[in-house]
Specification:
Radius of gyration: 17 Å
Strand content: 15-25%
Distance between the termini: 19 Å
Bound molecules: pyridoxal-5'-phosphate
Amino acid sequence: MMSNNIADRISVVRDRVAKAAIDADRDTASVSLLVVSKTKPVSDIESAYNAGQRLFGENYVQEGVEKIQALEHLADIEWHFIGPLQSNKTRLVAEHFDWMQSIEREKIARRLHEQRPDNMPDLQILLQVNLDNESTKAGVTLANVQELAEQVSRFDRLTLRGLMAIPKADATEQQQAESYQALYTVFQELKEKYPTIDTLSLGMTNDLEAAVKHGSTMVRIGTAIFGERN
Ligand SMILES: *Cc1c(COP(=O)(O)O)cnc(C)c1O
């Protein structure tokens, strides 16, 4: 049984991350935890914050901006946009979020660059990779990552930090390992080319351990902390 208490659940997830890192011979501090709060109320985010959590992910622009505004009084909180973004909504992300993890085309990056206010730090960018070439899923193919990285790296209001992926849900363990490995290889290549790259955002409630084993530096966890979404 999962505890009803958000602080307890966060500590269970932190323990899972730490154990996965140790099993993979990695430093436990090399994997950060992004808590995915989409559809959940502001009070749940405050509970997580009070348990020491600082990184939060939202999928829907309007909902995310409302929460960011409601929680402006919380120091050091960091907001990551992780959902699909239409070009007519880029301004809201540019003006309110710290990170944007789901860049899949140049046009959206260009708009974010143009709309990022001068008095804010650079928007931190991850390119979303469509790992298994699923037609239903967003993201750039692994073959086209380098080109998109090149384009995004030219925008000086953006800082390119790495890659994000949502792996196929029904993959076998073997398939999963192969796609994670392919992703990690491209991540390493990019890292050599762009000194700002340090983040591989991979792993959700069900594949956290496998993702850490394959080099994830940021896991994005919703269900294990807030319970099932409606
Ligand atoms: C919802 C979501 C998550 C969290 O998934 P859980 O399985 O609930 O942990 C992570 N990443 C993205 C992009 C999501 O949309």
